[in-house]
Amino acid sequence: MNIKKKLLFGAATLSMSLLAGCGNSNEIVMWTPLTGEDGQIMDQMIEEYNDTDPEFPVSHVVTPDLYTQIYTVMNTGEGTPDLAIIHADRVEGFVRFNMLKPFDDLMGNHPNLVEDNYIEQAWTAGEVDGSQYTIPLDVHSNVLYYNEDLLAEYGVEHFLDDDVLTFDEIMSLEGELDEGHYAINTSLMSWVLLAQAVNLGGDISDDEGNPTIDTPEMREAVQALVEVEEAGLMTPQGEDGYAMFQGQTVLFSSDGTWSSLAFDMVEDLNYGVTNIYSFDSDTWHNRGSSHLFGMLTNEDRTEEKEEGVAEFLDWVYENSVTWAEAGQIPASREVYESPDFENYQQSFFTKSQEQIDSLLIFDYEYYGYVEAAINLVIMDMVYGNISIEDGLAAAQQEVEDLVAQGHGADIDVDLDELDLEE
What we know:
This is Multiple sugar transport system substrate-binding protein. Keywords: Signal, Sugar transport, Transport. It holds the Pfam family SBP_bac_8. It is globular and about 65 Å long. The chain has 16 helices and 17 strands. The strands form four sheets. Strands 9, 10, 11, 12, 13, 15 and 16 form a seven-stranded mixed β-sheet that branches. It has two domains: 208 residues, 3-Layer(aba) Sandwich (D-Maltodextrin-Binding Protein, domain 2), CATH 3.40.190.10; 146 residues, Periplasmic binding protein-like II (D-Maltodextrin-Binding Protein, domain 2), CATH 3.40.190. The chain is α+β, with helices and mostly antiparallel strands. Helix 8 crosses helix 9 and helix 15 runs antiparallel to helix 16.
């Protein structure tokens, strides 16, 4: 069994838009990867903050290929932004390469910026060796959308009485659905799989930092998905299950919290949200990540500007309900406990401590490799094109090889071709 892989190295040429990273001494330059509607909503938030006439206004620079660009400017020492929004799994690697400055000193003067004021998983993702290197903006999670009309049509509304759909309940629909109707689709299937492995007691790495993909828990999780597919309850391979849910032929869709923006635009689609399905109603997780504010290491940045960064993050803590419009779960307790946030579908995930605890954030430094490797094989495993054993073994070997080569998240892994040989 071999996986053909290609590692793409080299610093990218800075685009003209990224030259804005140079900024000036009187503004806080913030780079983000928010290239869609979320970027427009962030622009709105920045405009609201700048309207308060801060000493250091914020300049938002949407930065495609964010991580490559960050490594580029950190290597050259030129054009480094003051602040960046990064993902939870990037923190450990950034700290290892001395790319982030901790917030510890600033937190002492800003009582909002403390652990108790944020979703715990988002806060701890930024903690390394006792120092806090990031301040959370949000959690964005896998979520199970359901078609209210189809559940009523098939008389299965009771499946969600406990807020958890189980594999047994899914399998009970075998032979019960009209032709062309399906129980589940395959949206964000790798996220679903990772949550199932954790539900069974597994993880994606061990205490020594080694990847753990080819495990009994992962095999059992894939097997459960295979059985759903073999029962004819999963959308067919090659079909767009996301669009099929919008077309009202799928009962449950495992998308992201942000997908509500698209679903809201579909006429006559009556939908709700609940937890990602699980093996039983006692143990469930919703795999997600977190957007985190990080202060990139920059010797030229003054203490006064860093104080300005903290003041901006103070403002975000109190005013980020606008961010919920992007389909995100604001990490600020001030916001997610507010009546205003209850108007958003994703408030389901903060309605109780049990729900908050279900939010699963991986901060493993090599998480990107894990997800890429799983994405390469999961559909072929689920639809029977390759065996579960071969698929997981291939994914495990791929990640082990990349980790052994000592590469962090600064390279782009193109896993574009799989050759399986008996």
